[in-house]
Amino acid sequence: MLDWKSKSTWVYRKMDSAIDHLVFATNDLQQGVARIETLLGLSTSPGGSHPGMGTRNALLSLGPKCYLEIIGPDPDQTEFQGERIFGIDTIEQGQLVHWCIRRHGLSSFVQRMTQKGVEMSDVIPMSRVTAEGNRLNWELAFPKSFGEGCTLPFFIDWGSSPHPASECPPGGELKAFEICHPDATPINEQLKTFSIEPCAIEEPRPRYRAIIRCPRGEVGLF
């Protein structure tokens, strides 16, 4: 994570309006939230617990239908055993670890991708209870290659649930998002298959990076 205000090093790309959220993973949610709030000068909103996954989250608005998810271990899920998603158990420093694209009619989208020969997971129903006691329901789907080293996004459909960004204090805006990778060309070809604007660039070190407009200016997040 880096406070980077040098615009000359960035290529401003057309933002894919379907980016639903970016995922910032941390091994300590309270510390991760504090770091993000200090970096951006914005307040987060408590998200909720993910039962059976050993995680909980906090959210920060990046636009009307876009947000930053800060996700870490849930200390209340003392019975949880196994590995938490996004490598949370082994991560040493909070960082951007993934991104999510919004697709309405997710089941139909998965079917279309399968017909194209793209291997996808089944659609997975999910839910959580917000800090206010309201239940959110959504569906997820993942490329079969999803996991460590996969730069393709996962996909979400909120159905009739309100979008979480609408429940967060406003103030942040996602201005740019890039996948840095030493082999960017095949990544961009794969993104085109999913009808996603190519956003991978050639860099030696694989990582995600985003520019967020916020009260601190335009800040880089990695």
Can you walk me through this structure?
By secondary structure, this protein is an alpha+beta fold. The N terminus is likely disordered. It contains three helices and twelve strands. An eight-stranded mixed β-sheet has the order 2-3-4-1-5-8-7-6. A four-stranded mixed β-sheet has the order 10-9-11-12. The protein has a domain of 152 residues: 2,3-Dihydroxybiphenyl 1,2-Dioxygenase, domain 1. The radius of gyration is 17 Å and the shape is globular.
Quickly describe the structure:
The chain contains 3 helices and 12 strands. By secondary structure, it is α+β, with helices and mostly antiparallel strands.
Q: What is the CATH architecture term of the domain at 19-170?
A: Roll
The biggest sheet amounts to:
8 strands, mixed
* SSE arrangement, N to C: EHEEEEHEEEEHEEE
Helix count, per DSSP? Answer: 3
Derived from helix and strand composition plus strand pairing, the structural class reads alpha+beta
**What is the CATH superfamily classification of the domain at 19-170?**
2,3-Dihydroxybiphenyl 1,2-Dioxygenase, domain 1
Strand order of the largest sheet: 2-3-4-1-5-8-7-6
What is the class of the domain at 19-170 in the CATH system?
Answer: Alpha Beta
In terms of quaternary structure, the protein is single chain
Radius of gyration: 17 Å
Summarize model confidence as the mean pLDDT.
90
Counting DSSP E segments of at least 2 residues, the number of strands comes to 12
